[in-house]
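Technical annex B. To support the medicinal chemistry partners, we prepared a structural model of the target in complex with magnesium ion, based solely on the information shown next.
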Amino acid sequence: MTMITALDTFDVRFPTSRELDGSDAMNPDPDYSAAYVILRTDDPSGLEGHGFVFTIGRGNDVQTVAIDSLAHMVVGRPVETVIGDLGAFARTLTDDSQLRWLGPEKGVVHMAIGAVVNAAWDMAAKHAGQPLWEFVARMTPEQIVDLVDFRYLTDALTRDEALEILRSAEPGREDRIARLMSEGYPAYTTSPGWLGYSDDKLAALAEAAVADGFETIKLKVGLDLESDTRRVRLARKVIGPHTRLAVDANQRWDVDTAVAWMRELAPWDIAWIEEPTSPDDVLAHAAIRRAIAPVPVSTGEHCQNRVMFKQLFQADAVDLVQIDAARVGGVNENIAILLLAAKFGVRVVPHAGGVGLCELVQHLAMIDYIAISGTLDGRAIEFVDHLHEHFIDPVEVVRGRYRAPRHPGFSAQMREQSIRDHLYPGGRVWTADPEELSEPVRL
Ligand SMILES: [Mg+2]
């Protein structure tokens, strides 16, 4: 019997604030970061599971400690028990009564659980010799529903209804896998739209995005209406009438401001407004949606758990949602959210970017296409061409489409040298004086 022998965390930070990459209305100086976790085993093959929470700098101070606090439920457990029943493993972590007090099922502890659950999934898919999307997409409907915690969901989605959704997507799975392998999954890009960029940089990057085959681009908005109107008009002029143009306010507004602002931007044919207001405010999203129809409203990347998604759907508050691979409680809870979205007929347009989020969430979108919603209609995974070189199995986006990952695992594993160089505060990129470099760490 092989055991999980250690849970090791690493504070990995990239100094992205130096170039304003990733700047938006609420996050003017992000240092894209990963609170990174490795589950080690005594398996003779060297089997490990890698996972992380994405933060934007100082969040790592707290997040790495939260991940460490889960070690007592992970270290010393048989590998076979963990990867043989990942539904039970995820529920063990969310049910720890002392840590649950800090949530429940939201915030720093829940994100830490997500990282550890995702690391266990990475381990399971590596053990199976399959990329995660294929590992899950080839499970039976019964195996997939067993992954989901239906607690708090049954007024909107029962286990039987979820089974029905999965069974009705079973015919055609093989055709969709073949199509995914040959054509990939649609992507959209946010690269032209960061708030800190000049108009010239915006125009050049928007033009390049269309030339690269992207059918949707997205701009950050929300700081200054006059500037946003100018940037949206410029982007629409550059990309022409056929490329979709979305905007993202990153939670900047109250309801009245959102409505007034979007009425000004609506004439440029907006594909959706993302995160107009607080991610916790279901009724505000519903009010904004009613007021600015037919402009579609979306949220989700900061949505803390499946219960919030359920309410957004029940209240007709959104036209589409972003899922995030590293915000909720891991693969299991995202499958619950994908099933809820399928039940309510809401499109899923996954959030990515940051560091490693594209690598992770592509697998979830592909699981949705093969085994849950069975469709690509109106769907695209966010893409930002940034920091992928730090991963051993980086995303591959060709002509505006994600290629399906082929390597075993969750594409979560960072290169050892990248972890060493970006360790905070002792790594090479953070230390001007080589004499101050931290001791080499075991990776
Ligand atoms: Mg966003």
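Notes passed to the chemistry partners:
The first helix runs from residue 59 to 68.
The first strand starts at residue 4 and ends at 13.
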